[in-house]
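In the laboratory, one determines a bound structure by crystallizing the protein with its ligand and collecting diffraction data. In a computational setting the workflow is compressed into a single prediction: the sequence and the ligand go in, and a structural description comes out. We illustrate the idea with magnesium ion.
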Amino acid sequence: MLDIHGITCVFGGLTALDDVSFSARSGEITGVIGPNGAGKTTLLNIITGIYTRTAGRITLDGRDISGLPPERLTRLGLVRTFQNIELFGKMSVLENVMVGLHTRSRSGFLACACKLPHHLREERRIREQALELLEFVGIVDLAGTAAANLPFGKGRLLEIARALAVQPRIMLMDEPAAGLNSRETWQLGDLIRKIRETGVTVVLVEHDMELVMDICDAIVVLNLGKKLAEGTPRQIQENPEVIAAYLGDE
Amino acid sequence: MRRELIKFALFAAVVLVIPATIKGGYLLNVLVFVGINTMLAVGLNLLLGFAGQISLGQAAFYGLGAYLSGILTATYGWNPWTAMAVAAIAVGILAFVIGFPILKLKGHYLAMATLGFGIIIYIVFNEYVDVTGGPSGFSGVPGLSLGDLHFDSDLKSYYLIWTMALLVMLLAVNLTQSRIGRALRAIHDSEVAARVLGVNARLLKVQVFTCSAIISGLAGSLYAHTVTFISPSTFGFHFSVELLTMVIIGGLGSIYGSCLGAALLTLLPEFLRTFQDYDIVVYGLLLIIMTMFLPGGLVQGFELLWMGMRRLRPGRAGRNA
Ligand SMILES: Nc1ncnc2c1ncn2[C@@H]1O[C@H](COP(=O)(O)OP(=O)(O)OP(=O)(O)O)[C@@H](O)[C@H]1O
Ligand SMILES: [Mg+2]
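The predicted complex, in structure-token form:
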């Protein structure tokens, strides 16, 4: 579904990504792992149009999407979450998700300012859909809380609910388990599986090996900007190069 | 939503009753300007308080509205209402066109660019003497009228301008509570996250910039037709800073706050004549004090005070019992 062809990214003298290629198959959870500084976040930033690549090509269902700005990619069904959660802190949890529904509503400046009937209907629909999404990730009881006041783990869930609001076909997550305790991580694993079951393809960048090995269908390993290995969780666990890279890192 | 409507209705009622409670003609005259400044502050607040984008060129849009209206009516004999509409549209188009390159800039660069724009327009007002009358000003702008009703007294002007100001406030409040308002606040908090969720940040910023320019242009037209005389000094950098101070004092992101800020900064100098030459210093100081001690503005200050009092009361009752 999502195909990465020879992505290279150079920051000044530093090659953060060096000719990385892999594919995320439709309906699967593809894990991207690698030690700190391997270039995982950089890869997501390039795919989602936040950084510009030095070389390479990205296609979504065969369509070239390299270099498209994030808001265009969203309309093509690609969304992401952030390693350092990027919530709209001053807004309520519900409103955060309602921003995610922005592309699924139409009303323009005039309709909004004049509260035209179709805008009010749309507003009610968005509110209900947002509540359903909060229900789905399990934080509907926090709908009225300011996002900035959420405990960290709930913030992660909110970010996921908000990303799901755009009705993505593919969702890229950057270390969603970082900062979660083991119970929360376990719940997150269930949630990601549930998301896959709704038909969303997932690319999961993650440090938590247990989670990755548990829920991923395929895994790509990055090290120092290069792709080190690719395969099923079993293959990766047994790959000597991967073991060496991780041991060398520790 | 209903609470919001009640709040607005109460506010509107107070505004409409005020003229009956004051005798002085002069105070009424000043209140007319509070109305105009409220419109301007609300316009800037949409841009700064919601989308988080600064503009130090608001006075230019205000001036353009005033001059376009003035010139089209006094020089070319247009109907004032038509002139007002055309001026607003023209200002809007200009803002939309310059908005795309300017709003690509962020922070200080955006401040500098809008400042530059303001200065250029100010120079145009001064130098195109044939058209604008230059530094000595432009007079003979006709007043507004609706059928036989001529807005020629302070009282009539008050109702005209406050009707417009209330309308602008109502529309602004509605806007900020809609999907557009949420998207603007989202851009303010985290532009990347907003974009990743499909919000076209670039276009929205230009649109809200255009919106605030149109409101400023309208305020300018109203000013011109009310005062009937305009001169460049009203529309200089100085006034852009004054507007910024109004918005920040009242509270970023609070529409009613903008009205409060406009009222304070319009009324105070009238009573504290001694400020006269130092007012820009006073604005600077106010800005510093507010951003340091009450970044949420006066309206938030009142809210905090109100909540504090509510928290105190049950406590005291408990002690007595
Ligand atoms: N904007 C940038 N400018 C310069 N260098 C950068 C930039 N972003 C990332 N890098 C560098 O690129 C390399 C890869 O960083 P990246 O954040 O992608 O790693 P990561 O795999 O996500 O690591 P972590 O597991 O710590 O999140 C690092 O050496 C980092 O310093
Ligand atoms: Mg990272």
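Strands of chain A lie at 2-11, 14-24, 29-33, 55-60, 63-64, 78-80, 170-174, 201-205, 218-223, 226-231. Keep in mind that any predicted model is a hypothesis to be tested, not a measurement.
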